[in-house]
Amino acid sequence: MLEDVYIVDENTMAFIPIFDHTGVVKTNILEVEYLKKCHLNPLELVDQNLRFFGSSLKGASEGTRNILGEVNMYPVIMNLKRLLVWLPTMSPKKKDCVWLALDHIKSYRQNHDRNTEILFTNDSSLILPISYRSFEKRIYRAYELKFKLEYHTKFLLIPHSIKRNFLRCEIVKEVNGLNYKIYSKDKNSEKESYDK
Questions:
Q1: Are 104 and 14 in contact (CB under 8 A)?
Q2: Over the stretch 130-178, which tens digit does the pLDDT of each residue have?
Q3: How far apart are the first and last CA of the chain?
Q4: Do 56 and 47 touch, CB atoms closer than 8 A?
Q5: How far apart, in whole angstroms, are the C-alpha atoms of residue 13 and residue 6?
Q6: Residues 65, 27: Cα–Cα separation, whole Å
């Protein structure tokens, strides 16, 4: 049975395109315990989920660009509250683009055909016609996005009264020395050493 609506959660691992006998692209939805099918293609499914949580593919891409700068094939934050980051394996405009949940990628390696084999958290595997280096770049970008989002989220929760009292310093290794010099970064004073 084809799903009309599908909402991503922590058990969703991948959206894999499947072409029917007429050439229409639909989606195999790989979950930890189930394989489901949806009449939407993977790109439509990603956009539908982003809209469900108050965004869109365009908005999520612009948000990622704001955090990571200009990069190709952006990862997206599928669900900000749960920090579910997803990444495309190639240009999302291509019909055979697979979308992957970052948290479910257990490992990846180059196989004998020089393709990339992904091992998911449930020990399922997926072989992608993509080079190891290209895939690794996408993984690093997705982790960078997740790391920066976690940092932003946690930093914003710190009250301003506490942030105001943070120690601000510059730490520099002494020239030809073993130790590091620690200098105050107080805006109201010149560079002053803490070692005095």
A1: yes
A2: 999 999 999 998 898 888 878 777 766 667 777 677 777 888 888 887 8
A3: 74
A4: yes
A5: 13
A6: 27
Confidence of residue 87 (pLDDT cuts 50, 70, 90): very high
The three-state secondary structure class of 177 is coil
Please state the separation of Cα 194 from the chain's center in Å: 39
Instruction: Give dist(CA 183, CA 162) in Å, integer.
Output: 21
Q: Which two tokens stand for residue 39?
A: 């009449």
Q: Is the model's pLDDT at 14 over the cut of 90?
A: yes
Residue type present at position 68: L
Q: Answer yes or no: are the C-beta atoms of 17 and 9 closer than 8 Å.
A: no
Secondary element (H or E) of residue 2: strand 2-3
How far is it, in rounded angstroms, from Cα 152 to Cα 175? 35
What span, in angstroms and rounded, lies between the C-alpha atoms of 113 and 132?
A: 11
Provide the 3-class DSSP secondary structure of residue 112.
coil
- How buried is 56 (Cβ within 10 angstroms: 0-12 exposed, 13-18 middle, 19+ buried)? middle
Q: How far is Cα 174 from Cα 191, in angstroms, rounded to an integer?
A: 15
State how far Cα 76 lies from the chain centre: 6
